[in-house]
């Protein structure tokens, strides 16, 4: 059986295709964010109707095991009863105050308690707002303009960070977006992930102008790429030595790779941390926080402007609180490690059996199968993967009811709602698909 770029006869997706055809007339590319446009795998995106636990249901009634979890937030699975209940109760009280509310204190306290380096935090509405604001605070605090980011890392669609960007920017071939002016990016220096000598060189040349280094502590946006201990150590040492701040972008890894994020897992001590995704339990929230002496520069405690009509929204904070409390009271991390290792081992075994060159990278419940013989450590090596083969793999699995990320350059996510049987079913389907790829 052959899988084409738009799937095959195994599944009827007629309604999905009709709805997406209409969407293309209404929204650019038919989507509200390019990561979901299937540009990396071809064919039409699948239109969804509902989700429950580890499963997605499309508008044609097809069921899928979900490995994107809304690109990370759904670590408890979809519609966890505790989160649903919290959101319903919040909606009964108010949709938005535009004024202080008690939920903000509870969520802020949870974040401060759980994320080791955060002493003070501000809630925003997305990961993009979090990284944009953290960069501004770092610049305001240090009085410097320069920032360092790494090729293939993605920090949302902040103008100054849309340079050599990962995720959909890499998938769709626009790592440097039109509309971002040279003036906006002239202070952005591009590092190579895991390359300590190159980082030293950047600081030797520009050290006194650099306000901050921002990085993904486990990259998810060029596929899953794992940091070396030397790289993490040198990030901290070099920034400290040159008076620059270290911004750990934990939008994806926060509450995911451990309850305290990658900084807890690896013992990183950033000055500022950015959060998103899980912190809102599937509702739109982001947060940035860190050293109190730095955060006290944010208006109105200090002078660095940052604001938001819906920031601290009571329904979104309720979802975030319920999610973080559930993670704290019933930590799923051991279970996630077990079933994620099961998936890794099964995929590796079947790919090897089918003679498919591959490398699997994984940290906890973040995983990528690269169709490559080179272990990815940076964008240069990650981008050597056979993306055409990934596209066939994606559709082969989609047609068997397994929904993987629609790009080689996105990590997959496993949730606490996935069962060992879901994982085994995924491995069995992957085994079938690998045989069609050779
Ligand atoms: C590491 C990282 N930072 C920032 C963002 C931006 O977050 P958002 O899409 O919520 O703006 C994302 C994901 O999109 C991300 O993966
Ligand atoms: N890893 C990339 C994202 O999480 C972005 C999702 C989106 O923009 O829909």
The structural class is alpha/beta
Low-pLDDT parts are: 1-5
Along the chain, the helix and strand elements come as: HEEEHHEHEHHEHEHEHEEHHHEEHHEEH
Strands, total number? 14
Major sheet: arrangement of strands: 4-10-9-8-7-5-6
Q: What is the CA–CA distance across the termini?
A: 13 Å
CATH architecture of the largest domain: 3-Layer(aba) Sandwich
Q: Which ligands appear in the coordinates?
A: pyridoxal-5'-phosphate, 5-azanyl-4-oxidanylidene-pentanoic acid
Q: How large, in whole angstroms, is the Cα Rg? A: 21 Å
Strand content: 5-15%
CATH fold call of the largest domain: Aspartate Aminotransferase, domain 2
Say which CATH homologous superfamily of the largest domain is assigned.
Answer: Type I PLP-dependent aspartate aminotransferase-like (Major domain)
Task: Please sum up the structure shown.
This protein is α/β, with parallel strands linked by helices and 438 residues long. The chain is 39% helix and 14% strand.
């Amino acid at each position: 059986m052959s899988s084409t770029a738009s799937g095959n006869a195994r599944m009827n997706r007629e309604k999905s295709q009709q709805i997406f055809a209409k969407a293309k007339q209404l929204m650019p590319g038919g989507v509200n964010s390019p990561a979901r446009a299937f540009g990396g795998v071809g064919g039409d995106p699948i239109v969804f109707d509902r989700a429950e636990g580890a499963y997605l249901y499309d508008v044609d009634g097809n069921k899928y095991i979900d490995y994107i979890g809304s690109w990370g937030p759904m670590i408890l699975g979809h519609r966890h009863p505790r989160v649903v209940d919290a959101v319903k109760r919040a909606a009964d009280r108010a949709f938005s105050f535009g004024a202080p509310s008690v939920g903000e204190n509870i969520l802020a306290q949870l974040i401060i308690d759980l994320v080791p380096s955060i002493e003070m935090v501000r809630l925003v509405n997305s990961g993009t707002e979090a990284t944009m604001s953290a960069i501004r605070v770092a610049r305001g605090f240090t009085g410097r303009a320069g920032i360092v980011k790494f090729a293939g890392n993605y920090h949302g669609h902040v103008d100054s960070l849309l340079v050599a960007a990962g995720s959909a920017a890499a998938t769709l071939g626009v790592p440097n977006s039109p509309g971002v002016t040279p003036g906006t990016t002239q202070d952005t220096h591009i590092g190579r992930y895991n390359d300590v000598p190159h980082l030293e060189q950047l600081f030797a040349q520009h050290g006194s102008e650099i306000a901050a280094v921002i990085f993904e502590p486990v990259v998810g946006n060029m596929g899953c790429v794992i940091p070396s201990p030397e790289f993490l150590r040198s990030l901290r040492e070099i920034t400290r030595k040159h008076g620059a701040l270290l911004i750990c972008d934990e939008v994806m890894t926060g509450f995911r790779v451990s309850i305290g994020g990658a900084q807890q897992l690896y013992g990183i001590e950033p000055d500022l941390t950015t959060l998103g995704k899980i912190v809102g339990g599937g509702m739109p929230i982001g947060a940035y926080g860190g050293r109190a002496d730095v955060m006290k520069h944010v208006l109105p405690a200090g002078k660095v402007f940052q604001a938001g009509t819906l920031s601290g929204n009571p329904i979104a904070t309720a979802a975030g609180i319920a999610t973080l409390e559930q993670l704290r009271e019933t930590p799923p991390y051991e279970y996630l490690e077990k079933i994620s290792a099961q998936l890794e081992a099964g995929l590796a075994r079947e790919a090897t059996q089918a003679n498919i060159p591959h490398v699997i990278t994984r940290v906890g419940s973040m995983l990528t199968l690269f169709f490559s013989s080179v272990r990815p450590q940076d964008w240069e090596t990650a981008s050597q993967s056979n993306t055409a083969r990934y596209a066939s793999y994606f559709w082969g699995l989609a047609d068997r009811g397994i929904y993987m990320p629609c790009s080689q350059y996105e990590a997959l996510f496993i949730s606490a709602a996935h069962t060992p049987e879901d994982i085994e079913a995924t491995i069995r389907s992957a085994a079938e698909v690998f045989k069609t790829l050779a």
